[in-house]
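Database export, one record per block. Field names are fixed; values are copied verbatim from the stored entry.
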Amino acid sequence: MGSQCSRCAHCAQTEWGLLDERQLARLDAGRRVRKFLPGEVLFHEGDEQTGIYCVLEGLVGLRKVDSGGESALLRLIGPGGTFGFRSLLADEPHGVSAEVMKGTRVCHVLPGPARRVVAEDHGLVMRFFRHLARDMAASDTRVLETVTASCRVRFLRLILNCGTPVTGVSGDARMSLDLPLSRQDFASMIGIRPESMSRLIRNIEGEGLARFSGRRVEILDLARMASESESQTIN
């Protein structure tokens, strides 16, 4: 079961932070803490509702597959993030798959208890709707970035935002990061083809900005990468 919701460091920043102690106690009775390894899937696109999930630690990616079998990584959910509620509110199967990108621990509220708690508190429903609205706004921002920022800038931003520093090999001018995504997933996140991603990486390496080895990147000029990632327009 894990520790109580009321003692969770992330509870206040999730939709559940609205609930009182009695409601949180009922939530505790209908949830479980689960651990997943990279590559494991919490649910598949088209699965019936499986409840609501809160990420305690790690990273989960929401993925969608088109009619031709091509998959795209749509969104990353880190610690304190919730997901799975859209299908529950809409009373329909999951519209995406949820895949673990790196070792992850989640709090899983089962469908029955989740429905009961949501049905009893209209304020909670509104919080989930606000979450959906923020997700839509974030999607709009990503669309705008495809026009106002180059694929290179979007890639550098994503590296700095989702990479995990490697202990003992970072400094003031350099930094090594472990990346949770494959190159194909990076390509889908910034809206380019995998072959374009390969060219982009070769260009970055050729300029001496960074070196890539599998899912590890050594940033050779941290200040320059940080500055370039903040660029707002296409050069």
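Remark 1: The first strand starts at residue 31 and ends at 36.
Remark 2: Strands lie at 31-36, 41-43, 52-65, 71-77, 82-83, 97-109, 164-165, 175-178, 210-213, 216-219.
End of record.
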